[in-house]
């Protein structure tokens, strides 16, 4: 069953999610908790989280509080957790997921994904580095890691399993693995009008793998890893002109574009108004001409 099929029985349930971003000194305690509760009240049911976001305790609390209020049932929520880079060895996969479940105080996650195809040196350090400040990588066998993920599904700890940031070659490695029990139901990658990933999207469609697009409104503009010479996505004149026609923001147009391409979107925000606005994309549709105009914005680069 696909990611979108496992969500609520409406278009809203499975196609737009709230990602729970990494805690930092700039993120006051309780911010994630309140954001998740606001999102649930607004109608969000798919929550994208990860152990290395350091806020799964707040996410779990928000879910439990809303269940206690009678607002939702556990089965209404579609929670995605992630296996971090230091936990690729097969013997670490289940204990890592069990740790996540303990933090969340949930019995299972709806989706568990390998966060990145590369591995870091296992150990206590989340970002292990050498004396020169360079990451310490670890040889990984993605097929062996995947078999451990399959075992987690068999044990009922994860309803579905998938991957993130995998390219076609890495996906084929899993899909062609001898004795494959479960193929990935999803592949979470950066995807937005400036980085539309058409070839990867088509490959995943052919194999019934749902693309989950992170940074659907553009990235954080961090010059250490993205090309900041491109203008910010939400200032794009095409998106803003189309938005004016429908009385929508450029962000809402960008999200609607992805939805109509069959991409699940996970826009990030702590702002209550924007959390609600990001959900208000199901009362209009883009024309074929408008879709093509937005597709033409693709720069084939992270920006």
Major sheet characteristics: 8 strands, parallel
Number of E-type strands: 8
Shape: globular
Report the CATH architecture.
Answer: Alpha-Beta Barrel
- What is the CATH H-level superfamily? NADP-dependent oxidoreductase domain
Instruction: Give the spatial strand order of the biggest sheet.
Output: 1-2-3-4-5-6-7-8
Average the pLDDT over all residues and give the rounded result. 90
Q: What's the tally of helices? A: 12
The chain-level structural class is alpha/beta
Task: State Rg.
Answer: 19 Å
Our count of domains comes out at: 1
Strand content: 5-15%
Low-pLDDT regions: 1-14, 21-25
> What is the CATH C-level name?
Alpha Beta
State the helicity in percent bands.
25-40%
Q: In CATH terms, what is the fold-level topology? A: TIM Barrel
H/E element string? Answer: HHEHEHEHEHEHEHEHHEHH
Family: Belongs to the aldo/keto reductase family.
Protein name: Aldo-keto reductase family 1 member D1
Domain NADP-dependent oxidoreductase: 33-298
InterPro entries: AKR, AKR1D1, Aldo/ket_reductase_CS, NAD(P)_OxRdtase_dom_sf, NADP_OxRdtase_dom
Concise overview:
This protein has 303 residues and is of the alpha/beta class.
Explain this structure to me?
- This is Aldo-keto reductase family 1 member D1.
- It holds the Pfam family Aldo_ket_red.
- GO terms for molecular function: Delta4-3-oxosteroid 5beta-reductase activity.
- Residues 33-298 form the NADP-dependent oxidoreductase domain.
- With 303 residues, the protein is of the alpha/beta class.
- The chain has one domain (3-295): TIM Barrel.
- Helix content is 38%, strand content 13%.
- It is built from twelve helices and eight strands.
- Helix 6 links the parallel strand 4 (109-114) and strand 5 (158-164).
- Helix 3 (31-42) crosses helix 4 and helix 9 (237-246) crosses helix 10.
């Amino acid at each position: 069953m696909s990611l979108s099929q496992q969500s609520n029985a409406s278009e809203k349930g499975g196609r737009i999610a709230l990602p729970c971003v990494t805690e930092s000194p700039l993120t006051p305690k309780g911010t994630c908790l309140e954001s998740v509760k606001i999102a649930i009240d607004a109608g969000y049911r798919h929550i994208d989280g990860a152990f290395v976001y350091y806020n799964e305790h707040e996410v779990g609390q928000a879910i439990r509080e809303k269940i206690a209020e009678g607002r939702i049932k556990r089965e209404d929520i579609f929670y995605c957790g992630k296996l971090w880079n230091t936990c690729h060895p097969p013997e670490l996969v289940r204990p890592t997921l069990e740790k996540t479940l303990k933090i969340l105080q949930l019995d299972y996650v709806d989706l568990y994904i390998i966060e990145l195809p590369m591995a870091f040196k296992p150990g206590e350090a989340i970002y292990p580095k050498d004396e020169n400040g360079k990451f310490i990588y670890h040889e990984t066998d993605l097929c062996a890691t995947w078999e451990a993920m399959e075992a987690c599904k068999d044990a009922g700890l994860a309803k579905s399993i998938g991957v993130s940031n995998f390219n076609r070659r890495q996906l084929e490695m899993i899909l062609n693995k001898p004795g494959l029990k479960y193929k990935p139901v999803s592949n979470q990658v950066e995807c937005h009008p400036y980085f539309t990933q058409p070839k990867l999207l088509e490959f995943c469609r052919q194999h019934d793998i749902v693309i989950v697009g992170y940074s659907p409104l553009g990235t954080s503009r961090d010059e250490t890893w993205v090309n900041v010479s491109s203008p910010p996505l939400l200032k794009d004149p095409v998106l803003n002109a189309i938005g004016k026609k429908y009385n929508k923001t450029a962000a809402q147009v960008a999200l609607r574009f992805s939805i109509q391409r069959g991409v699940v979107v996970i826009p990030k925000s702590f702002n209550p108004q924007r959390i609600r606005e990001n959900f208000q994309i199901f009362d209009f549709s883009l024309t074929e001409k408008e879709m093509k105009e937005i597709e033409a914005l693709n720069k084939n680069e992270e920006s």
